Amino acid sequence: MTFGIVKHLKCDEMLRLLSVAVTLLLGFQGSSGAATHTASSLTLESLLTTLKENPSRRVKFHESHYMRALTRPLESEGELAFTPPSTLLKEVKSPRAITYRVEGDKVFIDDPQSSLKEVFSLSDTGVLEAFIEAIRAPLAGDLLTLQRFWEPHLGGSFKHWSLTLIPHDPSVKALVHRVTVKGQEGQILAMSIEEANGDSTQLIFKPQ
Questions:
Q1: Does domain 3-207 sit in CATH 2.50.20.10?
Q2: Is the pTM of this model over 0.85?
Q3: What is the residue extent of each domain of the chain?
Q4: Is the C or the N end of the chain the one with fewer CB within 10 Å?
């Protein structure tokens, strides 16, 4: 993969992959036991515990990307999935098909409209590597890794909670101002990504 492609990824596709990573951070849907939590038991630890109880997950998404230069958001739909131990997948199905897949250190971008299939290492992308590695560990309930990369602010009750993530790393802050995830019990309902340049992305999730 050439430097030019990596640079382009950092400016655009990285944020698309970020939506995969942050969403999978908390999991799409907890175990059936999640509903037994009470408002007083809502902690980062209790949310991350649901990940270990339900390691494999798949969800449908609707994404709206708002750009200051456009009067209407860019809309897309598809599916997100995580397969243990380290495979992250984002399948965009409309307005056109394209697939992003992370397996170990490798990132694969499959665009049916292009004759080339892009494959590169996370170590070539700097900030993206930090994002992906920050997500895969919390999938195992690793709170320390989450706090290493993000400053988390959790509010609400387990029935209706909101988690705001502020990046620690200056190079990440140059791209993303904050990420807010909203959910109900063990299920994520929506996520927003506020970019440093004023653009934003909104995602709505529907578990399979």
A1: yes
A2: no
A3: 3-207
A4: C
